[in-house]
Amino acid sequence: MKVAVLDIKGKETGRKADLSDAVFAIEPNEHAVYLDVKQYLAHQRQGTHKSKERAEIAGSTRKIKKQKGTGTARAGSIKSPIFRGGGRIFGPRPKDYGQKLNKNVKRLARKSALSIKSKEQAILVVEDFNFDAPKTKDFKDVLKSLGLENKKSLFVLGEPNNSLYLSSRNLKDSEVITSSEISTYKILNANNIVLLEGALEGLESNLTK
């Protein structure tokens, strides 16, 4: 599949990028996409929730009232869950919400997501570019030239570029990642995918192993 390569002004450079049909034009597997997105969201959960149970509460261990003759239920500790300030019964404990997923399923899911975006004509190929210094205004100018203002966009680079990353960091609707960091969730969450030329080879290589 041939796609025109654009410059940062949004104009065609006269070159064509060859996008592999094995990555950008497969029949999407919805179940694989579902599993990969589910795993990604599960991994975002910290699982550090914790409440103190009876044995962890700091408090007196004396018996708070005599066993019999009070007309009420017996009670042996102020740390009992039935009293204010006592421990919590069956409270939340730290938990790892991570899920395992086969590598082949993850690759299939990512290829499916890219194929969906390709079918929607939501993938742009832009020649490699850089800024002399991190500047959000320059990155916003690029978004405007590409017609991506006020749209969620995902820029995929071939290798880390601190200048581009810092220039986009303050923009809530844009994200800059490398081809090795791409995920099904990020692909589907963006309205448009901007692939820099230098990212194509690594992206296709990672997804066709």
TrEMBL record:
Gene3D superfamilies assigned to the protein according to its UniProt record, in alphabetical order: 3.40.1370.10
GO molecular function annotations of the record: rRNA binding; structural constituent of ribosome
Region (Disordered): 45-77
Keywords: Ribonucleoprotein, Ribosomal protein, RNA-binding, rRNA-binding
One Pfam family hit: Ribosomal_L4
Gene Ontology cellular component annotations, sorted alphabetically: ribonucleoprotein complex; ribosome
Gene Ontology BP terms: translation
The keyword RNA-binding belongs to this UniProt entry's keyword annotation: yes
Subunit structure: Part of the 50S ribosomal subunit.
Family statement drawn from the similarity comment of this UniProt entry: Belongs to the universal ribosomal protein uL4 family.
NCBIfam families on file: rplD_bact
Name of protein: Large ribosomal subunit protein uL4
